[in-house]
Amino acid sequence: MISGVCNMHDALKKVLVTGGAGFIGSHLLDRLMTQNYKVTVLDNLTSGSLNNLERWLHNQNFKFIEGDLKNSQMVEKATQHADLVFHFAANPEVRVGEIEPHVHFEENLIATFNLLEAVRKEEKPRTIVFASTSTVYGEATVLPTPEDYGPPIPISTYGASKQGAEALMTAYAHTFNLRALILRFANIVGPRATIGVILDFIRKLRENPSHLEILGDGAQLKSYLYIDDCIDAIFGAIKRFQKGREKVDIYNVGSIDHVSVIRIAQIIAEEMGIPEPEYVFNRRVKGGRGWKGDVKNMHLSIEKLLGIGWKPRYSSQEAVRVTTKILLGTQ
């Protein structure tokens, strides 16, 4: 946690959040609204939900636009008057790339280009905060992986589309009148999430408490960060960025440690009060991965974030356990 984390620059009062009806975006919206910002959300509601926005729909400082970033005119309308832009809209499902790779190209890369073009045309100083991902690193040989690790070699179309979007961000920042803060997220968990291993295991164990299929060999090691810690990190990074003059800055956003998939399964079974089920490992993909494009081991270095005074309250295991309790209604 970081003190004063939400006190962004006073001049930045009008904010646009793309993907603001989604998991991370809606939690970000809650924090912005409680800090009295005027917020516009642009979301096509394909993965987001109006239920996530319900408490703000009649607030005079909030505006919702149901629209798609692939619609250039819609994007130009949404960006008008916004001093700060959070670009959190994307198709977050890594596995879709194995079947429909065009989805990531269109929803993540073309959408980002349209947003940057809309901002460029207005010729107004802007800051864009971009939700990127740990998957841009691919199967990194250095763990924990620092922000300057390279060259990044993504192994999924999702990671590739995010890396391409990052490149567009940096190019536009150095060419036009804007600045870009890039945040590379680990696995973020908490209420309102619609995909992920926790939801998948809970669903499977409800259907059959004695049997749990695990994609991959269960030895995958990844970092998990609770959503409140994530939002604190975002605002901490923004606060630091606004004090500097860099055109572009990049932060990893993750936890101090990591946890295995098999341990996640055990935690969920414990919280559901189920004696340890039979674990059946689906090893259809070589290397013990859960699916094509799955990065088996991911642990981000967060030394840069720790250096500005932020610190996660939960470890990876604690984040998984707290999320499980909330989803089960036991906390």
Question: What can you see in these coordinates?
Answer:
With 331 residues, the protein is an alpha/beta fold. The protein folds into two domains: 205 residues, NAD(P)-binding Rossmann-like Domain (Rossmann fold); 83 residues, UDP-galactose 4-epimerase, domain 1 (Alpha-Beta Complex), CATH 3.90.25. Helix content is 35%, strand content 19%. The protein contains nine helices and 14 strands. The strands form four sheets. Strands 3-2-1-4-5-6-11 form a seven-stranded parallel sheet, with helices on both faces. It has a three-stranded mixed sheet with strand order 12-9-14. The protein has a two-stranded parallel ribbon with strand order 7-10. Strand 1, helix 1 and strand 2 form a beta-alpha-beta unit. Helix 3 packs parallel to helix 4 and helix 5 crosses helix 7.
Tag the structure with descriptive keywords.
331 residues; Rossmann fold; 2 domains; 14 strands; 7-stranded parallel beta sheet; disordered N terminus; 3-stranded mixed beta sheet; UDP-galactose 4-epimerase, domain 1; alpha/beta
